[in-house]
Amino acid sequence: MQLLLKSVDFAARAHRDQRRKGPAEEPYINHPIEVSRLIVECEPHTHEDILCAAILHDVIEDCGATRDEIAACFNDTVADIVLEVSDDKALPRDERKAQQIETAPDLTEAAKLVRLADKVANVGAMLTDTPIGWDEDQILAYVTWAEAVVAPCRVVSDNLSERFDAIARDVRAFHTPEEQQKAEAGV
């Protein structure tokens, strides 16, 4: 438990100036906490190192933390998982997204669990706090991309996979023009 609380403190400090991109402008730290919470809810016996990595999963790519810094503060296992799920921000966005699809099958089981929970949280945000300026096509394209990333990660958690599928279905239903028209018409 001590290591997990230390990871929350580390991530909160690292993400202190960041906000989510939706209209609520939630503090960014809510996202990594949600990712870790999703893992605990769906896989309650998950090792603390994986939960710490879930909390820290964006500190390399978004905050400039290094693998060595994470290893020194936590341990090599946590640092390696975080590094595995970190995008290389030097690459253009489309390349980073393609790389997530390409590398997903080769992730360790721990990294697959973090990646899967991250996508559950991110796709869920398309219902509750969609990024400002995103239209229906962008939202649906994001869900399709997330499904491709998640496909090889499903083996690590049936519960998280089911949650992802339910949320993806809800997002598609809500953001499909025909469903929106029905909702607006009160049908």
TrEMBL record:
Protein's UniProt keywords contain Hydrolase: yes
Domain of life: Bacteria
SUPFAM superfamilies: HD-domain/PDEase-like
InterPro entries assigned to the protein according to its UniProt record, in alphabetical order: HD/PDEase_dom, MESH1
Domain HD/PDEase positions: 24-132
Gene3D superfamilies for the chain: Hypothetical protein af1432 (1.10.3210.10)
Record's keyword terms, sorted: Hydrolase
Statement: the UniProt record of this protein carries the keyword Hydrolase: yes
Annotated GO MF terms: guanosine-3',5'-bis(diphosphate) 3'-diphosphatase activity
Protein name: Bifunctional (P)ppGpp synthetase/guanosine-3',5'-bis(Diphosphate) 3'-pyrophosphohydrolase
Species of provenance: Thalassospira lohafexi
Biological classification of the source: Bacteria, Pseudomonadati, Pseudomonadota, Alphaproteobacteria, Rhodospirillales
